[in-house]
């Protein structure tokens, strides 16, 4: 377990010059740079346990981008909203769909919204629940009601989850969901976490957080996946973002997982951002773009890039915005 959590690892700082902190934001995701705020997760420290979650948007095309909360349509249960992974899909008619992994009262659903640009609001369309989605972590949308999702555990019961991790069963998986068909398309992960898709829609990337790996899977016309390669890293890889212009993968990482699960304000969780270029080649280039021992940024979980601007989200209470 110690090796899976990288419990003894300390980080050397790698700083970026033009950065400032944004408070009140946790997870950061691509396209519109929507974030979930306020994820509450069993076993993880929460700075605002009583506040419901929400969705914020940040337009990185603006001169001085700022986060704005999106209104959510009436009839959706905001009080129990506990957002986790987020993905967007843009249809042929330019309709934007937002998919959000939700853990209301620690259950597992995927909420599908339509983004109403004129009102800066989200119209709730559908709640997805399925027996093949027992412990959803992240999603990547591939249609208006179609997505790939990672289950970070096989079980939904907290004690069985703990046992599954402790026994190192490797029962986590990836599921394809559509209104007509739901199926497991990849399995054997220690703890499948972040998931994303290449700009050409041919490859799916999956982060296995406790195995310190990124899996490259080829997508087939029937939506099945076959594994092409595995990239091994020396850190706990959380969420994956894709730079749409280059296809580079930007990874939010936890250098030391032990500090995440045993939170100590005097020895806080550190942060690390990796950039992976040419992942399909024989020797992908892996660069540490940012690293901090927790003095500035704790528990980095995702890094998103757009047009020379970098947004690093965390499991906690703040994000870091940098101009590269």
From TrEMBL:
PTM: Glycosylated.
GO cellular component terms, A-Z: extracellular region; membrane
Enzyme Commission code: 3.1.1.2
Cofactor note: Binds 2 calcium ions per subunit.
Subcellular location: Membrane
Residues annotated as glycosylated: 239, 293
Residues where Ca(2+) binds: 86, 137-138, 193, 238-239
EC class name: hydrolase
Active site: 84
Recorded topology in the membrane: Peripheral membrane protein
Keyword Chaperone: no
Catalyzed chemical reaction(s): a phenyl acetate + H2O = a phenol + acetate + H(+); an N-acyl-L-homoserine lactone + H2O = an N-acyl-L-homoserine + H(+)
InterPro entries: 6-blade_b-propeller_TolB-like (IPR011042), Arylesterase (IPR002640), Paraoxonase2 (IPR008364), Serum_paraoxonase/arylesterase (IPR051288)
Keyword Transmembrane helix belongs to the record: no
GO MF terms, alphabetically ordered: acyl-L-homoserine-lactone lactonohydrolase activity; arylesterase activity; metal ion binding
Single GO BP term: lactone catabolic process
PANTHER family in the record: PARAOXONASE, SERUM PARAOXONASE_ARYLESTERASE 2
Family: Belongs to the paraoxonase family.
This protein's name: Paraoxonase
Phylogenetic lineage: Eukaryota, Metazoa, Chordata, Craniata, Vertebrata
């Amino acid at each position: 377990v110690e090796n899976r959590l990288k419990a003894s690892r300390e980080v050397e700082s790698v700083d970026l010059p033009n950065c400032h902190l944004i408070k009140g934001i946790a997870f950061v995701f691509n396209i519109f740079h929507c974030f979930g705020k306020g994820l509450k997760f069993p076993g993880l420290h929460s700075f605002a346990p009583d506040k419901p979650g929400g969705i914020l948007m940040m337009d990185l095309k603006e001169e001085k981008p700022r986060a704005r909360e999106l209104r959510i349509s009436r009839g959706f249960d905001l009080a129990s909203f506990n957002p986790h992974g987020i993905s967007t899909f843009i249809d042929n008619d330019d309709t934007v769909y937002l998919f959000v992994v939700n853990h209301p009262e620690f259950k597992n659903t995927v909420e599908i919204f339509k983004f109403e640009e004129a009102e800066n609001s989200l119209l709730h369309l559908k709640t997805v629940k399925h027996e093949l989605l027992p412990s959803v972590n992240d999603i990547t949308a591939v249609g208006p009601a179609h997505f790939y999702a990672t289950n970070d555990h096989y079980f939904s019961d907290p004690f069985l989850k703990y046992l599954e991790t402790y026994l190192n069963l490797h029962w986590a998986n990836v599921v394809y969901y559509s209104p007509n068909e739901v199926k497991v398309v990849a399995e054997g992960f220690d703890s499948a976490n972040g998931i994303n898709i290449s700009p050409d829609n041919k490859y799916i990337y999956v982060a296995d957080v406790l195995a310190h790996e990124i899996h490259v899977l080829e997508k087939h016309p029937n939506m099945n996946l076959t594994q092409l390669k595995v990239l091994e890293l020396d850190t706990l890889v959380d969420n994956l973002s894709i730079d749409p212009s280059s296809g580079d993968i930007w990874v939010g990482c936890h250098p030391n997982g032990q500090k995440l699960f045993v939170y100590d304000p005097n020895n806080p969780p550190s942060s690390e951002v990796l950039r992976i270029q040419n992942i399909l080649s024989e020797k992908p280039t892996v660069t540490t773009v940012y690293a901090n021992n927790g003095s500035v940024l704790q528990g980095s979980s995702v890094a998103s890039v757009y047009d020379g601007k970098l947004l690093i989200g965390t499991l906690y209470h703040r994000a870091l915005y940098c101009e590269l």
